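User: Quick sanity check before I run a bigger batch. Here is a single chain. Can you write out its predicted 3D structure?
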Amino acid sequence: MTSIPTMANFTTAQVGGPVPALISIQSLDDLVEASKFLWGSSIPFIILGSGSNILVSDKGLDCIVLHNRAHNIKINTKIDPPWIEAESGAILGTVARQSALRGLSGMEWAAPVPGTVGGAVYGNAGAHGSDMAESLRMAKILHQKKGVEDWPVEKLAYQYRSSILKREKMPVVVLSAILNVVQTSRDEAWERIKLYQAHRKETQPPGASMGSMFKNPPNDYAGRLIEAAGLKGRRIGRAMISPVHANFIINLGGASATDIWQLMTIAQETVMEKFEVKLEPEIELLGEFEK
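Assistant: Done. Predicted structure follows.
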């Protein structure tokens, strides 16, 4: 008997309900073939990478999930400037470490960031003063109607934690990315990675979470506002606003997506009431949520 896949097993928050089918994608050819088939059959689907930065409803999703494991990384140091080409299922931290080991700099910021290259291109992931808008040279995009295209970084129309792909929900799949790097020493690049990883360990909570819940408002920090609102340590069910960093909700084990969503709603409403600041989610909500 085949079991029904549950998204809780594939998301970093360890929550989420069932889906009709989850297909493991091992190569870009598989990703292109599966996407074209599903589009051609009018079957809705989503691409899943590492499962970070998303909150999937307890009710699950009425679509096919393509679990992207296409993770090849090519590094060219024989040209000036050098470049990295990473498939969309590659883990950002792996890209950063492989780059540093070859004495290349430019991706160290990504070493502690959970998520894949495809998700980073889609959402303009960033940390430590840099982001994909700065690091990306070109993205290879599969468009439902136009086929495979090379998009220069300008075409992504990046904004803070956003791209035109994310804002307009375009019918595309990110296949790979060419990333900007410069020559440096292995020791220098690796030292920066160790520094960023140590900072993450000191300032961000361990445990199952989605990553940062909300975008930072202009000239402020979401975590500061949530803490100032007195919400650190607030719990619903088995979900808790982290006492370490208030812009994280931790699954203490057995939390539901509804528990997490209700805490997010409380954070938004309380911060608005106390400070008249609207917190915008950095994560994406997938599926149905009801108050």
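The longest helix spans residues 257-275.

User: Great, the batch can go ahead then.
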